[in-house]
Write a structure and sequence with these properties.
This protein is an all-alpha fold. The protein has a single domain, classed as Malate Synthase G, Chain: A, Domain 4 (Up-down Bundle). Helices cover about 65% and strands about 0% of the residues. The protein has helices at about 15-20, 20-35, 40-75, 80-100, 105-130, 145-150. Helix 3 (about 40-75) packs antiparallel against helix 4. The longest helix has about 35 residues, at about 40-75. The chain is elongated and about 65 Å long.
Length: about 160
């Protein structure tokens, strides 16, 4: 073989590829010591980005679960189920509050996801509860504070 042929560099597997926990520990050590030149910047950026996405997805999922149960409580005429749905609503609300406490900027996402989440809930619930009459749009206040505090089913003029 001619010596002119250059060997192609085979990328070395990083600790990120071999052992994620080791990579995290190394990254923390590099950051704490100010050893910025040895940071695996590309993977660090990817992980930080995925953390933000995970927070947003968790928030959206909890809002979806809350709206779904409010819809069931308000529009599905099953009185024996009311207590369980109200209990679920009371359980979900602090989960959302906890997410907001950690990341207050998630409150801005509420207005971005509300209509989409409501339509997702409609798509799920209409086949399950064929006799229920769900409105085409969210009928209640668009305030996140109210979503987390108002028992809409007690507002007789808005439910059913």
């Amino acid at each position: 073989m001619p010596q002119a042929l250059e060997q192609q560099a085979v990328p070395q597997a990083t600790s990120y590829d071999r052992d994620f926990l080791v990579w995290i520990e190394e990254t923390i050590a590099h950051l704490q010591s100010g050893n910025i030149k040895n940071l695996d910047v590309a993977n660090l950026i990817e992980e930080i980005d995925s953390l933000g996405k995970a927070q947003k997805n968790a928030f959206k999922g909890q809002v979806r679960a809350l709206i779904e149960h409010i819809m069931k409580r308000c529009y599905v005429d099953m009185p024996l189920e009311y207590n369980g749905r109200e209990r679920t609503i009371r359980n979900i609300r602090p989960e959302i509050e906890d997410l907001i406490e950690i990341s207050p900027s998630l409150q801005n996402d509420y207005f971005k996801v509300l209509d989409t989440v409501y339509q997702q809930c409609l798509k799920k619930l209409q086949p399950e509860y064929k006799t229920a009459r769900f409105p085409d749009q969210w009928q209640f206040t668009r305030s996140l504070h109210d979503l987390l505090n108002v028992d809409f089913w007690e507002l007789s003029d808005q439910c059913r």
